[in-house]
Amino acid sequence: MKMVIAVVQDQDSNRLSNALTQADFRATKLASTGGFLRAGNTTFLVGTNDDNVPSLLQLIRDNCRARDQLVAPISPMGGNADAYIPYPVEVEVGGATVFVLPIEQFHHF
Ligand code: 2BA
Question: Which Gene3D superfamilies does this entry report, sorted A to Z (predicted)?
Fold first, then answer.
């Protein structure tokens, strides 16, 4: 058994949620925040058998898009604030960041 942890953009979370339910995957959705952008995203926890992992990864791939987002950089510590011009930087986010972890035990009481 594996635990698949997928960090996805909020815009993709409903679509992915529906697709998971339709494909009979059981999932838990957590509201999360990216450490870099400090913007909200959604983390899915999906426990599933090893055999189902490839189709789960494909389903995540099919339902999550990459998007460009603007980041306002933080001013440099101790630097000259007068000379600092905070140009927004564009970064590509997603489609999804996925971790596949082995599960030692699974209980459902
Ligand atoms: P954030 O940390 O807010 O990162 C958003 C996007 O900013 C990233 O997209 C990446 O394109 C960029 N980025 C992140 N850290 C950067 C850095 N140090 N320098 C330059 N650009 C940087 P994604 O890679 O698609 O990640 C989307 C979200 O997935 C992340 O949001 C974070 O919540 C999660 N994530 C990504 N990698 C992770 C990891 N190794 N461990 C845990 N969570 C991760």
Answer: 3.30.70.120
Q: Domains plus CATH for the chain?
A: 2-75+82-102 (3.30.70.120)
| Whole-number pLDDT of residue 72 | 77
**93 CB-near residues (< 8 Å, 6+ apart):** 9, 34, 37, 66, 67, 68, 69
Question: Would the CB of 35 count as within 6 Å of ligand 1?
Answer: yes
Low-confidence stretches of the chain (pLDDT < 70) are: 73-85
Q: How far is the CA of 109 from the centre of ligand 1 (A)?
A: 35
Structure tokens at 32: 């999360």
